[in-house]
């Protein structure tokens, strides 16, 4: 008795989404002998085949089960499916099969092909779930079938395993279309359509993207999540945030029933052992399991569709699908919890054989094997530190008992360097004190080499705390104590000596020391220090006025970061910060903003107080563009951080500059005076950050009218710049000195200072500093152009600056800030409509941005509100100003600006 449903294709496709990218792949199928849908369970092989063939009437479908390994049964169902597709074109062959009148399948198929010779319609024969066939006679027969079948017939096979049907030969002859789990997995767009079809409420695209990533597009998992969300609508976002929030019981049941429970006990045990590893190759699995047949087992898992993904590259590395890996871990926890410690210990040792201490350390921590953790850190900790494994090392060391940690002085030293690398300078000092006390308690005496290493660290702490004299003494002591083989600490001590000279203004001595540090650090693969040395060299060259060379060194530093995978090391933020500063000085604001935003990403895992530099730079960029609202938001963040934390003068001075520029543009002299009353006064002005702070004080003095003090400050700054060859700071000072001279009614001196600044800018490229005070010095530049006092290069630069200043003033004014609006409304000839139908401050801002040319979306982004809110503001201001469209709004803004003299 034949079962009709075994010859019926799936009909319930109403909930399936259309998948054009796969249908396009399958379009040329008539020109191929075999279409193979091969993937693990739950990828929708059958559904996709049914969707593709739903419009093809000449399709035979054979739903295979375990009983079809009987050759007679298989042959009869196969022929019945062909007859169904061809409208009974091979009844004689079917009769032969029913009477068992064939010696083997190849004999029967020969008769079949002869009978089909008069049939010419394109026909598809689907063998669904072929992985259930394990009869070699059937495999032999189908290989014969594929080799000799008529050209108008295409065989379609769905299988969880690679069927033994001569696929390699078909692939080489270009007669095979393969649709694997990589193609069957939903992409992001398909995932979005899938959920929108099943869930009534709109789901955020970001939520769906997260879900797609977590389940790797596995359709069955997405289906179960959708069903769960239909029952509990508020759980979809929670599922996206963490798969741990999704009830995975149904998913585990499916994987157990459809995959795991069907395996023999040996394979199940092998999978559970391997589940302790995130990625693996044959040698790693051999060391973990002790099996000599590990490679053969992995290859069989790969062939049999057990959610095993082959990673790109050499050496045959594998990983399990994310959810299958979770399932296996779940099974391991429940079935063999007593082996957890043993498996992770074996995994740690196996990874050490692979020269991967990072992975070994993770496993050693998971099995709480503190002695093994200490051994790994003692042998490999410093190499890991030099390669940027900061977070992993910090976590491992934090979990070691303090008594054991202090018994290993070099591990204590590593702990302190980790804190140092994250700019936790005050913590490092406390740690040194704590370690010294512990060493004394245990009567541990450091030899000269270790004492030298501690002194090198103390020197670094001293320079970070702005004590260059102490740093120099400690670094020279360290160099005297350290043997030549202790290269890391010698590199640090050499670097500190160079940094001390940098801080003291001895740039000609600092640069070669930093070049030597870089060379040594690269030679011994201490890449943190190599990066630090490159950044120090860049700062020195910048101070000397060689700004292009400084920028090119930063490019070398970016290359080093990429090559040595240092993207998440805090020093990467310093690199991005320097780049942003130079780009700001060159008035390349978009690029500067991009660098500053990237620096925020680098520091995202760390304490928010480390973000001060990035936010102050973003504020400065916003001020330069005239985006006062945005600048105010950034400065609120900066000033909050300044109140909560203690910073180096370099950090404070940069933030103070942004504040002063903001208050200067806002005309808030009270805030400037308050700052001036409490401003820190450096002891000298021999480096760039001391120069910056004194220049901030001079700027504040000019704004509040204390011109005599400003004059005295610039005299002192000039002397230091000349003494220490601080060319770039001299360039910056001259622009502000011209502002001072103009206020002192000494126009000839102001013109001379601006001209000298322009001459220096020929080598520094520093145009941004002119734009900070463009409103004041614009007429000075114009006069120099008019009287032809400039050579060709300086003339070109002056004209460029004048264009930028005009544009900048326009951008500033179109924001219609409160001071601007107040002055506008007090004009005697302001139109009565403006006076009687006053706009709100937000509506003025919107009008200004319309004049700038912003779209509604850009205005919404600029003001950080919804687009619908902007539409409401625009409608209101149109009504108040009695205008009908955007062009009239622009004309109105232009007329108002003309009234203000722009």
What do you see in this structure?
By secondary structure, the protein is mainly α. It is built from 49 helices and 7 strands. The strands form 2 sheets. The protein has a 5-stranded parallel beta sheet, with helices on both faces. The chain is globular, with a radius of gyration of 37 Å.
Counting DSSP E segments of at least 2 residues, the number of strands comes to: 7
**Count of individual helical segments:** 49
Q: Termini, distance in Å?
A: 95 Å
Main sheet attributes: strand count, strand direction, barrel closure: 5 strands, parallel
Share of helix, binned: 55-70%
Residue ranges: pLDDT <50 for 5 or more in a row?
A: 240-244
Strand content: under 5%
Shape: globular
Can you list the strand order of the major beta sheet? 2-3-4-1-5
Question: What's the rounded overall pLDDT mean?
Answer: 88
Structural class: mainly alpha
Assembly form of the protein: single chain
Radius of gyration: 37 Å
